[in-house]
Amino acid sequence: MSTIKNLIDIASDANQRKEIRSGLALTFGKLGADGVSALPVLIEMLKNADGDLRQAATIAIEDLGEACASEFSCLLLALRDQNNYVREVAAKTIGRLRENGASSLPILIDLLYEENYCVRQAAAESIARLGNNGLCVIPSLINVIGDAQVNVRYAALMVLNDLNENSISALPHLLNMLNDTDGNIRNAAARTIRNLAQCIVDKHRA
């Protein structure tokens, strides 16, 4: 464990060559539970002006995946970080932690109204991965499906689709989305409506 701590100290040293720091970041991502202690350093790397360091930190956090659950409080803090990219990566990571992730829903809902569309999209996608834990966000999702960015609208539609018959209150808005200027959005809205109708029929037959 002391060896990992030494590596973390090296990775956090801004005077070290970026090749060494990015290499260590990628290594932490491969260590699973043993590499999670490096998460605070990886999150700091996401703020770095150097694209290679940011990319290495992103890959490492993605590789750590569910192991990040042991440092969940660190991810929650990252959701409130001033850096857009940090919030985006944190939101995506939390979406993979279904058991812990539900407690982050209030923050993810706030992120649906972020100025940065990448953050909005990451929040919507994470809520989708949290499954039925996302029921309380339906009113916010109804607002987001009118977002100016196609990717954000699409992510919100995917959440509503996954919520099945629970998204019935969104039906009038889904019908409006059939007239969206983007073909993928129209198709996603139609698919969500069909799924919603089928869920209602199946429930009635049961």
Topology:
Elements lengths: L1 H10 L6 H13 L8 H7 L5 H14 L7 H8 L4 H11 L3 H4 L3 H7 L5 H13 L8 H7 L5 H13 L8 H7 L5 H23 L1
What's the quaternary structure here?
A: single chain
Number of helices: 13
User: What's the total number of strands?
Assistant: 0
Class of secondary structure makeup = mainly alpha
Stretches with pLDDT under 50, minimum 5 residues: none
Kindly describe this structure.
- The chain is mostly helical and 206 residues long.
- 67% of the residues lie in helices and 0% in strands.
- The chain contains 13 helices and no strands.
- The longest helix is centred in the last third of the chain and has 23 residues, at 183-205.
- The model has no long low-confidence stretch (mean pLDDT 85).
Briefly characterize the structure.
The protein is an all-alpha fold and 206 residues long. The chain has helices at residues 2-11, 18-30, 39-45, 51-64, 72-79, 84-94, 98-101, 105-111, 117-129, 138-144, 150-162, 171-177, 183-205.
